[in-house]
Amino acid sequence: MSMLYPAMSKLTSYVPNRYMLVNVVARRARQIAEEAEETGEHLEEKPVTIAVNEVAEGKLDASRMDLTIEEENA
Predict the structure, then answer these.
(1) Closest CA to 53 of 2, 1, 14
(2) How far apart, in whole angstroms, are the C-alpha atoms of residue 3 and residue 72?
């Protein structure tokens, strides 16, 4: 039996619930993929993995993601 890494409890300490976590990670993964495509950068990991790790490291949370999205739409 494999364990989820990073642990869900660690991820939800930055993003309050699983639904919001999925949305935050998906939006960030899209940003990562788009940036890599624009710059021609080769990603060593999948965009979703990078986004999940950013949440686990505290680099990304729901409040900052909302601000980023609002700025993009402005």
Answers:
(1) 14
(2) 36
40: Cα separation from own chain's centroid: 20
Which amino acid is it at 74?
Answer: A
| Selection from 62, 69, 50 nearest residue 21 by Cα | 62
Structure-token pair, residue 60: 């990304």
Please give the structure tokens belonging to residue 4: 């989820």
pLDDT digits (tens), the chain, 74 positions: 445 678 888 888 888 888 999 999 999 999 999 999 999 999 999 999 999 999 999 888 777 655 444 444 44
How far apart are the C-alpha atoms of 11 and 59, rounded to whole Å? 11
